[in-house]
Each structure stands twice: as C-alpha cells, then as structure tokens.
Amino acid sequence: MDKLKAMATFVQIADAGSLTAAARASQASLPAVVRSLAALEAHLGVRLFNRTTRRITLTAEGRQYLDRCRTVLTAVADAENELALDAAEPSGRLVVTAPALFGQMYVAPAVTTFAQRHPKVAVRLLLWDRVVNLLDEGIDVAVRIGPLNDSSLVAQTVGSLRRPVVASPAWLAAHGEPAHPEDLRHANCVRFNGLPPAGWTFHDGERPFQVPVTGNLEFNHATPAAEACLAGVGPGMFIEYQVAPYLADGRLRTVLEAFEPPRRPISIVYPHARGLPARTRAFVAWMKEALAAHAFGLQTGAAMPHNEVPTTPTPPP
C-alpha cells in the first residue's frame, strides 16, 4: 500500500463527502477508491468512516486521523516546493535594506557580487538609519543591528558587535585613561544622535547604568563623530564597525572595556520562511556567508521567528 496516496485518498473522501465524489475529484475509479480506504483501515486497525447506503460520516478516530493526515500531506508538499525553489534559477526583483554606514562597508559589496553571480535578479539596496516595516515598504530582506522587537519576521542572527568607548592616544596622553564611566562626566565627549540623549549606557556585571555626558560637538552621523575623536576633541561611544579602521591602525583606542554593554546582534530578517522565492533564499544564504567572513565576533546562527515588525523608530545603528 502506498501510504501517502492512501492518506490523500482518505482526505479527498472526507472533503468530498462520498466515495463517488472522491473518485471523481481524484480521477480514479470508484473500486480503486474503495480498495484504498479498505486497505488503510485494515492497516490502522480502526474504522475511519461510518457508512450506510445513503451517507458516509467520519468516526471519532477518523476525525483525529484526518487532522494528522492534513499535517503530513502539507509538510510533504512544502518539502517538494522548497526543493523546486532551490532548483529554480534566481530571478526577479529583490529589495534589501541595511544601516547606512554598515551597508556601505559590508552589505553593498556583497550585494554587488551577488548581482554579478545572478544577473537575472534586479537588486535594489536601500541604506537607511531607521527601522522600517518590511511589509509596508515592500522590502524583501533587511540587515539589522541591535535587539529585534517581537515580530512575525524570521531572523537569522549572524553575529554580534561591541559598543565601545574610544579616544585618541593624544587625548588619553593629555587627560589620562578613565578608570570608571563616571570619569566621563567631566570630559568633553563627542556625541552623535544615534545614542539616547540621556547618557551613555554601561554595565557593571549584569547591572546596566547610565552616565550623563556633555560636550561641545554633536553629529547626526557616526563618521564625522569618529573623525572628531581622531582629532583629539574627546572620547566617543560607537558600534565597533563605525570605528574599525581607526582601531585597527591605532589611531583610536578603546577604554572602559570592563563596563561595555552586551554585544549587539547582527541579524538578517525577512517577512516569512515558507514559500520564499529562489532569489530571496539565495540572497539570504549569500549574505550570511559574506557577513560571517568579517571580524566583530560574527558567528553563523540559526533562523528563529520573531513577532512584530518594529513600528516606531529606534536609535539607528
């Protein structure tokens, strides 16, 4: 007995309401449908239908088995569809978004090579320092930095980033290295509005706390803020990719590492997992590999569902 075929026939009988209607719907003979049902009931050792000369109704066991059959048949169909999608050549329009600076540094190069590898995919990359609603704005994939609100999105966490305080060697030589975040209250801190205005957040073990900071320079973008730190104006707090080149060549140094807040996750998010187009599936896999190839403690993670697209802006990374 072909068990999957017998299960499909059983579901057709239940949906059609009669053996004759099920035979007609499946384009099979009535005797074949009867034999399939009889073989399934014999295999299970239970009666699935109560049958009279006028009508056929599900037994209690039949109703229970019907739900399980639907689940199994749906799973099989989904698996076959996914294989078909994998086999298809990626094509069509793909819209991707990422934070502006991180997107310039790491996402745009990966998008370029992806487009070269898949010439039938038309990719549009939108670099925004704001959280957008993917469904409302027609976006297929987003790269996000920071905790995700509960959502119906699927998120693949591919790594994490520090949020250090940095200063130039010249400033440290002139003012000394701070031993505690409270020492920053009296420093001329370089600020940019990607951080909460109330102050900079630190952690003492598991306990978060804020230190109000002031300074005579504030920017709306990380790059000029980092350059002000390079010039020796004062210390600044950044996400590490924003100052990675300066840390690598020693023009900036991290301070107060023992008080850094928890690392911020890097995630690839998209609206749903089931029935994704081949272009989206291919791009997500491509982007995961591209980001995992960089530093910042990136580690490939597993997909996990979230619940709710953030609808209000959060501090941009």
What does this protein look like?
The protein has 317 residues and is α+β, with helices and mostly antiparallel strands. Helices cover 38% and strands 23% of the residues. The chain contains 9 helices and 15 strands. The protein has helices spanning 3-16, 19-26, 30-44, 60-87, 100-117, 169-175, 222-230, 244-248, 278-292, and strands at 49-51, 56-58, 92-98, 121-127, 141-145, 154-161, 165-167, 188-192, 200-204, 207-211, 214-219, 236-237, 253-255, 264-270, 303-305. Strand 3 (92-98), helix 5 (100-117) and strand 4 (121-127) form a beta-alpha-beta unit. Helix 1 crosses helix 3, helix 1 (3-16) crosses helix 4 and helix 5 packs across helix 9.
End-to-end separation = 59 Å
Instruction: Provide the helix percentage.
Output: 25-40%
Spatial order of strands in the largest sheet = 4-3-5-14-6-15
Give the amount of beta strand, in percent. 15-25%
For the largest beta-sheet, the strand count, sense and barrel status come to:
6 strands, mixed
Radius of gyration: 29 Å
Instruction: Summarize model confidence as the mean pLDDT.
Output: 85
Label the overall shape. Answer: elongated
Number of helices: 9
* Number of beta-strand segments: 15
Structural class, by secondary structure, is alpha+beta
Helix-strand sequence:
HHHEEHEHEEEEHEEEEHEHEEHE
Low-pLDDT stretches: 297-317
